Structure formats: C-alpha cells, structure tokens
Amino acid sequence: MENFEPVIIAFCCHYCAYTAADMAGSQRLPYPANVKIIRIPCSGKVDALHIIKAFENGADGVYVAGCLEGDCHFKNGNEKAARRITYVRNYLEEIGIESERLMMVTMSAGMGYRFAQTATEITEKIRKLGPSPIKIAIAQ
Amino acid sequence: MITAERKPLDELIEYVKPFKRILLLGCNECVTVCAAGGRKEVGLLASGLQMALLKSGSNIEIQQHTLERQCDPEYVEELVPMIDGTEAILSMACGCGVQQLAMRFKNLPVFPALNTKFMGASERQGVWAERCQGCGDCVLGITGGICPIARCAKQLMNGPCGGSTTGKCEISEDVDCVWQLIWDRLKSLGQEDRYVDIMPAKDWRSGGGSGPRKIIREDLAE
Ligand code: SF4
Ligand code: SF4
Fold it and tell me: Does the residue A2 lie in any domain?
C-alpha cells in the first residue's frame, strides 16, 4: 500500500489524556490527524471487545491512554486497563496481528506536550509497521 | 458453577474452516460468570475468528447468539427458527450444552469452543478453583465443609498423607493440604472428635463408578 496513512484509535480517559489532548489544542501543539480519539470515562472501562472491534474495522494501531500510576480517578482503573491490554495483546498474536499494534500509555491532564508527543511517536511506530494484516486481507 | 476456558484459536479454525456459515452460540449461565462463553466472549471470538480466517483467505459468515442456558431443551428449541442455512454450530457452553445441541440437531455438526474444566467457586475476581467432583454422597458435613475429594490430590478420606508439610500439599507449595484445612476448621469449630473417626472406604458407585448417572424426579418427570 503506497502512501500509507495509518488509522490509529486512541481510547482516552476523560480525567487525563482527553483533557491533555484539549491542553495540546489550546497550546497549539500539533499532533497527527491519524489519531482518532474516543473519550472514555476511565481507561479501565475499555473492553477487550472495543479494541478487537477497532482492529476488525481496519485500525492499524490502538492505544489506551490512562492516568499516571497511582493517579487514577477511580482508584485503579489504569492498572486494570494495563492487565487487559496484556490479555488482548496475547489474543492479537493468536489471531495473527502483531501485538505491538496495541499499547497502553499514561499521562496527566496537564501534559499537553506529552499527549502530542505520544500521538506522534505512536503514529510513526505504526507507519513503520505498515498496514495491519487485516486491512491488507480486506483489500485483497 | 461449571468452569471452562476457550480452546486455542488454531483448533477452532480447523473445526469451522470447511463451512460457509456457522452459528457461534454462547450460554448465559456458568460460562458467562467465568468469562469463557457469555455474550461478550461470543463477540470476541467471532471477531477473532473472522480476522484470522480473513488472513488465510477464507470468509465464513458467523452468526452470533447466546442462549439463556444451553443445557435445557426449552432454550435450545429457540434456535429452530434461526438455524436455517447454518452449516455447523460452534458452542461456547460447557460440554453439557454442546451435547444438548448435538442431541437436538441430528444433521448439524456441533463443535466445542471451550475446554470444560471443573465444578468450582470464585476465589476472587478472575480466579476460579475446583471445589466439588460430584461424588454423589457428600461428606462435607463430616469434614468441616471442605471437600477432600476435589481438593486432595490423592482423594484421601482419612488424611493427611505423609507429604503434607507446613500446611502445603506435596504436589506443590502453591496447593494447600486440604486435610490441614479440614483439621484447622474442625478445631475452630470445636469438632476435633470428628477428625478421629475413621471414614470407611468410599463407595464410588454414586460417583459415576457404575456408569453414567441420572436423576429422575418422579413428581416432575414427564
Ligand atoms: S450449558 Fe448449562 S451447565 Fe453448561 S455453562 Fe451453560 S448453564 Fe452452565
Ligand atoms: S464430598 Fe462429594 S459432593 Fe461433597 S463437595 Fe466433595 S465431591 Fe462434591
């Protein structure tokens, strides 16, 4: 696939990463338009099914952005999310999708710069990995 | 509850590969509680199968449905109107559910998506442990409510064996010696005398030793 532009889904916790995205916006910090943000009430609320469906529908990469360690608005949703990510990564490998396409990141609401930087780094990482094998299979 | 775990995806793909249209069927009871075969797991497996098959160049239509219970004929009957055109069923229930389907739909191949494990209880979120082996003649009333059949590696009726060390079973440091647990519990209940009684050798006929078991309630049976 020439001129590959990855589609990346970012599940962002309302109390940190989503607010950080807002902050990035008001600080006029650019980040790639490849990243599609879905606001969630807590990173712990992201279900394995949401992630798998994203890949089934053509996402090249997915990340869940939760609060910093020990800082979860709901006590430990971010820890639960991290364990779920590990579980889904194993499932992705079983399916035949590189597990590196799924990531967990953490940040605080004030980290606009970190949000933009993370979005850029992840977009570059997925660009290097190329289109998801599912996208390739659909195109064939 | 009956506990189960999903089979590896590769094994399931081998089952469903020859078909064009399958029904992936969950069960709303035990396997939902142990997060192996409920509605959510049906969705996850359907997507996973779909993607894995797509990668290998095949395309199967996967219809998803979850029954209240797969082990009861009245619920299985609900499938009749929706089964037209289905070439095979992949069941996410325990082995009882799978067999109920196989009995009902004589011409449809039925495959298990799960490995049924044991009758167990939830120790904490996400952890299930074996608690009962359905021996048909429960001794919990004598053993302080702790089962030596399901939880002693040797199923000793008068334990512990010589391998019990500091409360752990000789098979692994991670496994409690059930006879230690029984003794501790009898002691705290002030029932130490129970422990001294020798339990007679168990009659395993009630536990499946004389073939498949059945319960017939004359007042209910039709
Ligand atoms: S088929 Fe019956 S026994 Fe098996 S999981 Fe479902 S409800 Fe439980
Ligand atoms: S004694 Fe028999 S019926 Fe009672 S819990 Fe143990 S295996 Fe189950």
Answer: no
Strand partners, B5: B115
Closest-CA residue of chain A to B125:
A80
Q: Exposure pattern of A67-93 as b/e (b: 16+ CB <10 Å)?
A: beeeebbeeebbebbbebbeebbebbe
Report if residue A3 sits inside a domain.
no
Per residue of chain A (140 residues), give pLDDT as tens.
568 999 999 999 999 999 999 999 999 999 999 999 999 999 999 999 999 999 999 999 999 999 999 999 999 999 999 999 999 999 999 999 999 999 999 999 999 999 999 999 999 999 999 999 999 999 88
Residues of chain A that touch chain B, judged by Cβ-Cβ distance less than 8 Å: 47-49, 52-53, 55-56, 91, 94-97, 133-134, 137-138, 140
CB contact under 8 Å between A94 and B48, yes or no, is yes
CATH number of residue A37's parent domain: 3.40.50
Q: Is B211 exposed, middle or buried (0-12, 13-18, 19+ CB in 10 A)?
A: exposed
B31's tokens = 């396997």
Q: What is the largest CA-CA distance in chain B?
A: 68
CA distance B104 to A81: 41
* Domain that residue A69 falls in: 8-139
Angstrom CA distances, B168 to B96, B156, B193, stand at 34, 15, 23
Q: What are phi and psi of B103, to 5 degrees?
A: -70, -40
What is the distance between the alpha carbons of residues B136 and B214, in angstroms, rounded to a whole number? 11
Distance CA B12, CA B153 (A): 31
Ligand 2 centre distance from Cα of residue B67 (Å): 29
> Is B2-118 a CATH 3.40.50.2300 domain?
yes
ipTM > 0.90, yes or no:
yes
**What's the pTM value of the predicted model, to 2 decimals?**
0.94
Q: Is B97 in the pocket of ligand 1 (CB under 6 A)?
A: yes
Q: Which residues in chain B are closer than 8 Å to A133, comparing Cβ atoms? A: 55
A51 vs A67: CA distance, rounded Å: 19
Ligand closest in space to the Cα of B66: 1
Q: Taking the domains of chain B in order of start, what are their residue ranges?
A: 2-118, 133-199
